[in-house]
Write a structure and sequence with these properties.
- By secondary structure, the protein is of the alpha/beta class.
- It has one domain (4-151, 192-208): Rossmann fold, CATH 3.40.50.
- The protein is 31% helix and 21% strand.
- It contains eight helices and eleven strands.
- The protein has helices at residues 17-27, 46-56, 77-81, 93-102, 106-114, 124-127, 135-138, 169-183, and strands at residues 4-8, 33-37, 61-65, 85-88, 118-122, 161-163, 187-189, 195-199, 202-206, 210-213, 216-218.
- The strands form two sheets. The protein has a seven-stranded mixed β-sheet.
- Strand 2 (33-37), helix 2 and strand 3 (61-65) form a beta-alpha-beta unit.
- It is globular, with a radius of gyration of 16 Å.
């Protein structure tokens, strides 16, 4: 199976450097181009410009901006798919998933990964790589109201759940155990500064990743 996925809890603190180094090697190309899909409209490109600076320090060129809600430009879609990697931003996971569905982007992103593209997700963007976004509520995301969000299924690029911002492991232990029991799915809790790399069938855990299976914490 071809999968090149990078799941960040955040991209803010210096501890992310260990994931950044793995990201560059995972893409495996000199001067790669990265596309950017924001979770919601960024009219002044404030967050996009911050990410441009972030990736520039890694020798990566974030140059394709593809907004999916307010300022949607479908003509940019082919430019997005030609990128060596695509970044899915943080934000409200429910809003993000809703607009990915509205724009018909679920299958194209799945195919992008199947064809060898690297997908990067921070927080909400990482949750979207999983089978469903049930962990978004645990992060404090406010669900949308209305029938359009009765389906919480996401990209399904991995078979586990991902809970970012797990900075107080002891306090969150019950949350992980209950989720794994209720959903009958493995869940990984990830503190800020840590992350998960998926390369084909190989999964690499960077940092203090917590894992729960069938209602119990297990060693990663």
């Amino acid at each position: 199976m071809i999968r090149k996925l990078v799941l960040y809890s955040d991209q803010v603190i210096p501890e992310n450097a260990k994931i950044d180094r793995r990201l560059a090697s995972l893409i495996g190309k000199q001067n790669p181009i990265i596309g950017y899909i924001p979770s919601s409209s960024d009219p002044e490109r404030i967050w996009f410009k911050q990410k441009q600076v972030y990736y520039e320090t890694l020798g990566l060129n974030l140059s394709v901006y593809f907004e999916i809600d307010v300022n949607y430009e479908p003509s940019m879609f082919h430019s997005l798919l030609r990128c060596d990697a695509i970044h899915l931003s943080g934000g409200n996971t429910y809003h993000f998933l809703y607009w990915l569905r509205v724009r018909g982007l679920i299958v194209p992103l799945q195919e992008y990964v199947a064809n060898g593209g690297t997908l990067i997700g921070t927080s909400a963007g990482a949750i979207l790589m999983t089978p469903e976004i049930g962990t978004a509520r645990l992060c404090g995301d406010a669900p949308l109201t209305g029938e359009e969000m009765t389906d919480s299924s996401a990209l399904g690029l991995v078979d586990f759940a991902f809970l970012p911002h797990l900075n107080d492991v002891e306090a969150a232990t019950n949350v992980l155990e209950e989720y794994s029991q209720n959903y009958q799915r493995v869940i990984y809790g990830c503190p800020d500064g840590d992350g998960i790399i998926v390369n084909g069938e190989h999964i690499e855990y960077l940092g203090n990743i917590q894992k729960a299976v069938s209602g119990s914490l297990v060693r990663v």
